[in-house]
Amino acid sequence: MMEVTEPSERLFAERKELRKGLSTGTYAAACAKAAALFLLGERREKVKVWLPCGQEREVAATVCLKGDYAEALAVKNAGDDPDVTNGIEIGARVWLRKGKQSIFIRGGEGVGVATKPGLRVKVGEWAINPVPRRQIEVNLKEILPSDFFAEVEVFVPRGREVAKHTYNPILGIEGGISILGTTGLVLPMSHQAFQETVYLHLKQCFLLGRKKICLVPGNYGYAKALELGFAKEEIVKISSLVGFALETCAEFGAERVFLVGQVGKMVKIAGGIFDTHHLVADARREILFAHLVRAGLPVPFWSKVWEARTAEEVALHIASWEGATEFWQYLAREISHRAEERVQRAFRVESIVFSLHLGVLGRG
């Protein structure tokens, strides 16, 4: 339920001290506390909030009275994390009534509802994760008199719109974003966030009984997989996290996995590279050249292959070689072999390598 897009190069930024941000759960807790304090006769421009990591932070919130409840809004700051929720408003409405101290939390406008299994919340529940729920409760209990009952509605004015740019529709969270946070902080360039999204998507596939999974790096692979007849429910975008995705499939007992990707990404796997981001490793030329020479590529092709700027260009250069078809079949088998080795042959892997210009090159 991570509100992330695929990892960008910023994940690997290391030239400056990156700023941490605060999670949607922290902002929801801050707004709930600010609204409750207002109803108790104390208006604050900033409220101090307890975080699950044990720290405290001050959060600015705007509060107003609306009939029998108070409403607070805060603008999310994700620090230097490329989070699509950065800059949006998170809000909470609070009703206080006399009664035994207890807290009821629900979602409102712009907060999604879970419609598929395998998430941190049950099907039919608001997508407010367990840790943010506890965070709201702890912060309210700190100020709530023992004879008051609090009803909290978390809302996100632009949540429905923003959710379209997250993985929520794929994960089965409909109607808005998720209220998240395990520490209360947002770590800059969180590679872990995308890992959890991939993990949850794969978990859902297996809970829904899918033993065959198609892993694709991104949009090109996704489109090709659909073209090849894979159902969208069995296709999972994994970006550069090939090794992580394969290991997750093994954890959930996959029987067969398909790797479908454009040649530039797939060739790295043939060289044993399982994080294919170019800032982690980029030996496409060397891997392709070594395998081509081993396969008997004639010397006149060598210079063009070595000087090619992309794997796509290599595919075009060797298209006239009579051994090209057999070579791509061999390379696809090599990719499958490497992938199966990674998971100690826990399942069968079929690799499909394609070119944007030449279509499917090899399948093995």
Task: Give an account of the 3D structure.
The chain has 364 residues and is an alpha/beta fold. The protein has 2 domains: 9-186, CbiD-like (2-Layer Sandwich); 210-363, no CATH class. 35% of the residues lie in helices and 23% in strands. The protein is built from 12 helices and 16 strands. The protein has helices spanning 24-39, 130-141, 159-163, 168-171, 191-207, 219-227, 242-251, 263-270, 284-294, 299-307, 311-317, 324-342, and strands spanning 21-22, 46-50, 56-60, 62-66, 69-75, 89-98, 102-107, 113-114, 148-155, 173-174, 185-186, 212-216, 235-237, 256-262, 348-355, 359-363. The strands form 5 sheets. A 5-stranded mixed beta sheet has the order 4-5-6-9-7, with helices on one face. A hairpin with a 2-residue loop joins strand 4 (62-66) and strand 5. Helix 9 packs antiparallel against helix 10 (299-307). The protein is elongated, with a radius of gyration of 25 Å. The model is unreliable at 1-16 (pLDDT under 50). This is Cobalt-precorrin-5B C(1)-methyltransferase. It catalyses: Co-precorrin-5B + S-adenosyl-L-methionine = Co-precorrin-6A + S-adenosyl-L-homocysteine.
Reported by name, the CATH topology of the largest domain is CbiD-like
Number of helices, where a helix is a run of at least 4 consecutive DSSP H or I residues: 12
Cα distance spanning the termini: 33 Å
Query: How does CATH name the architecture of the largest domain?
Result: 2-Layer Sandwich
Protein name: Cobalt-precorrin-5B C(1)-methyltransferase
EC number: 2.1.1.195
Keywords: Cobalamin biosynthesis, Methyltransferase, S-adenosyl-L-methionine, Transferase
Family: Belongs to the CbiD family.
